[in-house]
């Protein structure tokens, strides 16, 4: 799906396109100025930028890191993909710099604008308030709104939120097993939220699969699980090193610039898929952004 094909249709056509896709690839753009500044000790943090691509129809997300049938994308393959949507962070440069200097730049409040091509109009909008994290009873969250062409006010689709319930169990899971959980929740008319999926992310060897040393030059892909409300695995998320150009891939990994490959659950609606896409940003800031 090319951006030129969806630019005129805006939100409605993006919704239709998401409903027809098997998955998406989210690639964070390399920020060279940020890398140079931080290499010399300056607490400069640029606003993140991303490109969003359709998962190629002949590619499959891995179910475990050594899955022979899954796609292990190289850097050149990822760069060659045609984006159908872009995302750009809106936040204060002063806030980013100060929080980076204090060692908590990944917690910064922001808005994430989703645009088709280079158009200025938003298709989706993420609002992320400053929160310290579920470990201190203040779960990080992102709220996703739809910016429909025929409505002046944004429509709340749902939110993505750290799952720290039960508190002690989730703390033990995070500290002892390096495993975290993130809830994907749809907004209901009465203002409450309904859980649709969860993301289970294990960063080491403890869990359904062994993600030790992944993603890196030693192991290209880490694989995480998308769970339904019953706890069953219904899809997978892959974080890829992007090998093929080893030096560039190492620089991107060292700078915290991430490549996500997401498979959508078969029963997911376009709104669910937009929320799953938003969950990738939640994970990127919470786990993969430089602290």
List the topology elements:
Blueprint: H1 3-6, H2 10-20, E1 23-28, H3 32-39, E2 49-54, H4 75-80, E3 83-90, H5 93-102, E4 110-115, E5 122-128, E6 141-146, E7 155-162, H6 167-177, E8 179-187, E9 193-202, E10 221-227, E11 233-240, H7 246-254, E12 259-263, H8 270-288
Antiparallel strand pairs: 1-2, 1-12, 2-3, 3-4, 4-5, 5-6, 6-7, 7-8, 8-9, 9-10, 10-11, 11-12
Helix pairs in contact: 2-8
Give your account of this protein's structure.
The chain is globular. The model is unreliable at 3-9 (pLDDT under 50). 39% of the residues are buried. Helix 2 packs across helix 8. The chain is an alpha+beta fold and 291 residues long. It has 8 helices and 12 strands. A 12-stranded antiparallel β-barrel has the order 1-2-3-4-5-6-7-8-9-10-11-12.
């Amino acid at each position: 799906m090319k951006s030129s094909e969806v630019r005129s249709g805006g939100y409605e056509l993006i919704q239709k396109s998401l409903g027809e896709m098997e998955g998406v690839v989210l690639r964070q753009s390399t920020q060279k100025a940020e890398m140079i500044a931080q290499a010399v000790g300056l607490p400069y943090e640029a606003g993140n930028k991303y490109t969003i691509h359709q998962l190629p129809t002949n590619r499959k997300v891995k179910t475990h890191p050594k899955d022979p049938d899954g796609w292990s994308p190289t850097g050149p393959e990822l760069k060659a993909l045609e984006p159908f949507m872009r995302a750009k962070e809106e936040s204060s440069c002063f806030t980013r710099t100060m929080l980076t200097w204090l060692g908590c730049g990944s917690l910064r409040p922001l808005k994430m604008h989703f645009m088709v091509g280079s158009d200025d109009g938003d298709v989706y909008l993420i609002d992320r308030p400053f929160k310290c994290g579920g470990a201190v009873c203040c779960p990080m969250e992102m709220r996703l709104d739809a910016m429909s062409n025929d409505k002046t006010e944004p429509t709340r689709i749902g939110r993505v939120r750290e799952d720290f319930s039960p508190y002690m169990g989730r703390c033990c899971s995070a500290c002892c097993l390096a495993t975290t959980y993130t809830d994907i929740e749809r907004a209901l008319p009465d203002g409450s939220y309904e859980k649709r999926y969860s993301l289970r992310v294990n960063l080491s060897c403890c869990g359904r699969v062994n993600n030790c040393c992944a993603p890196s030059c030693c192991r290209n892909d880490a694989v995480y699980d998308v769970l339904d409300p019953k706890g069953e695995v219904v899809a997978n998320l892959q974080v890829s090193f992007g090998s093929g150009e080893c030096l560039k891939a190492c620089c991107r990994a060292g700078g915290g610039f991430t490549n996500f490959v997401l498979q959508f659950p078969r029963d997911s609606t376009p709104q669910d898929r937009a929320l799953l896409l938003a969950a990738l940003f939640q994970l990127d800031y919470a786990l993969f952004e430089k602290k």
